[in-house]
Write a structure and sequence with these properties.
This protein has a single domain, classed as RelE-like (YaeB-like fold, 2-Layer Sandwich). It contains 4 helices and 5 strands. Helix 1 crosses helix 2. It is globular and about 40 Å long. The termini are far apart.
Length: 115
């Protein structure tokens, strides 16, 4: 049994991206939205499920924008990525999805990660 989280919260940017994916007429994009929704139960049961991003690899802009202390990446279909952090509040863990991005945006933030 993994480390459980109480709730998943979407940042405004992540909520906007998910809405765009789910409203798309492109079946590839809607499948990404479905995959994100299906990750909810997995992440709540095991919040550090994704790949840990080394602190030094996180851009200063991204780190400061979301006040990140840790960052995890979940791979999505079509080379999209879900970026999230785990926070603790009053003894409870919460997952905050900070960004849902395509390969191009991810590569700008994490050049040379070979993904």
């Amino acid at each position: 049994m993994g480390l459980r989280a109480r709730e998943i919260v979407l940042s405004p940017a992540a909520a906007k991206a998910l809405e765009g994916l789910e409203r798309s007429h492109d079946p590839g994009l809607t499948s990404i939205g479905r995959r994100i929704r299906s990750l909810k139960s997995i992440l709540l049961a095991d919040c550090p499920h994704g790949e840990v991003v080394n602190k030094e690899a996180v851009s200063k802009r991204l780190r400061e924008r979301y006040e990140l202390e840790n960052l995890f990446v979940e791979d999505l279909p079509s080379f999209w990525r879900l970026l999230y952090t785990i926070i603790r509040d009053r003894g409870e863990r919460y997952i905050v999805v900070v960004e849902i991005v395509d390969h191009r945006a991810y590569s700008r933030w994490f050049p040379g990660r070979g993904r």
